[in-house]
Specification:
This protein has 171 residues and is an alpha+beta fold. A five-stranded antiparallel β-sheet has the order 1-2-4-5-3, with helices on both faces. Strands 6-7 form a two-stranded antiparallel ribbon. The protein is globular, with a radius of gyration of 18 Å. The protein has five helices and seven strands.
Length: 171
């Protein structure tokens, strides 16, 4: 259990001030699990179907590594490696019953791809533009800048409109 708490604390510290970072905790029997991922960058549906459901039925001493068979998985031995996997779109799973962690490839490939802006002609560089969805836009930026120094904070502004606003910055 000490490894579980230490590892969880280290990952949460590295991804602090990131409103799109999620740590989903749940318990099966006497074993506590935590799944770390970045919303809109990892597919929530894939995490539910291929990670959480198999772990919920985990039994007979099977390890996390053996329980998750529908997506690519690999062992993660350090917080640095876990950070790289999360920033690549994977989710990282830790268990109170096991030492180490497991990364499962759950990168979100769905949604409308960013289109080339119609009003701005680009000769060199990326031909991508933002969409109407703020979460998709944040994921687009995270695909280009893969670092925990890229922070995202959400706010609600306006007395009447209560508009949701996100600010992304490099710390």
């Amino acid at each position: 259990m000490e490894h579980y708490d230490t590892f969880m604390g280290e990952i949460e510290k590295r991804f602090s001030c990131m409103s799109d970072f999620d740590a989903r905790r749940f318990t099966v029997g006497k074993t506590a699990y935590c799944v770390f991922y970045i919303r809109n960058f990892s597919s929530r549906d894939m995490i539910n179907k291929y990670v959480i459901e198999p772990l919920a039925y985990l039994g007979g001493g099977r390890s996390i590594f053996n329980a998750i068979s529908s997506v690519a998985v690999k062992a993660v031995s350090s917080a640095d490696e876990a950070e790289r996997e999360i920033l690549a779109g994977s989710c990282v799973i830790i268990s109170s019953a096991e030492h180490g962690a497991v990364a499962a490839m759950t990168k979100n490939e769905e949604g409308r791809s960013p289109d080339e802006p119609e009003t701005e002609n680009v000769i060199r560089g990326a031909h991508e533009g933002f969409t109407e969805n703020g979460g998709s836009n944040a994921a687009l930026i995270r695909r280009r800048i893969k670092t925990t120094h890229l922070k995202k904070e959400d706010f609600i502004v306006g007395g009447l409109s209560k508009t949701e606003v996100s600010i992304m910055y490099l710390d």
